[in-house]
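W.,

You were right to be curious about this one. When I first looked at the sequence I had no strong expectations either way, so I just let the prediction run and decided to look at it fresh. Below is the sequence, 97 residues in total, followed by the output.
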Amino acid sequence: MSCSVKALVEIGVQLPQGQVVGELGLLAPYQARTQTLECTAAGEVLQITYEQVKQLYYQNPKFGFYFLQLTTRRLFENIAHLERELAAKQPSVAASA
């Protein structure tokens, strides 16, 4: 697939070139992605299957640890993003009460 500049549509986040994306989808039930990835400029996108990640995880402890750190960091980033959204909405919720 060809794409160099990517954005996660639902949260409006631009991803820099070389960024890993979709790792949480590999761990989610049914390996479903959690965000829509939109390509906004030409380039190259590499993909890997769940089975390939699973094999790498067991064969290469360095990769396994990297993958754990990556998914954990992404989960914490997602939580922080949701907390910021909630905090931004709370004053309007309190004003309408």
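Here's what jumped out at me. The first strand starts at residue 5 and ends at 8. And, maybe more interesting for your project: The radius of gyration is 17 Å.

Coffee later to discuss?

I.
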